[in-house]
Description:
By secondary structure, the protein is mainly α. It has helices at about 5-25, 30-65, 70-95, 100-130, 135-145. It is elongated and about 50 Å long.
Amino acid sequence: MSDAKISVTFEQDHDRLDALFHSFQEQKRKDFAKAKEAFVEFKIGLQRHIVWEEDVLFPKWEENSGMAEGGPTQVMRTEHQMIGQCLEAIHEKVQAQNPDSDREEQRLVEILKSHNMKEERILYPSIDQVISEAERAELYQAMKEIPEERYRTCCGSGHA
Ligand SMILES: [Fe+2]
Ligand SMILES: [Fe+2]
């Protein structure tokens, strides 16, 4: 991923996460163990994605654009909190082996859809515009260095 534009890498990660969530939804009333596997991978992946954005990407964009308070990254951070709450609501049902999380799933899908669209159409292209290639390499390096404990929590164990 180290040479790709930020917009390409992050859009691909959105798509990968969408597919995992879809597989959870597809499987949960057929093979719960399989569905749970997909959910755990989705949850950890989404948490990693959000940490990448909040700890690495957004601060860089705020620094280079001079826009922090009241800017788009602040809106994205608020939405991440809502996303996190929806994620936990589904997580609780998965832990209880309860597949009846359709309402919570629908809410998460709705928020994610508009959130990801805003990032893909506005924020990521703008980040690609304000950073140099050297800065981009630094961002990828910083993403790699984030300790797994920051995002690798699911189903009570602290591990997948
Ligand atoms: Fe985001
Ligand atoms: Fe994102």
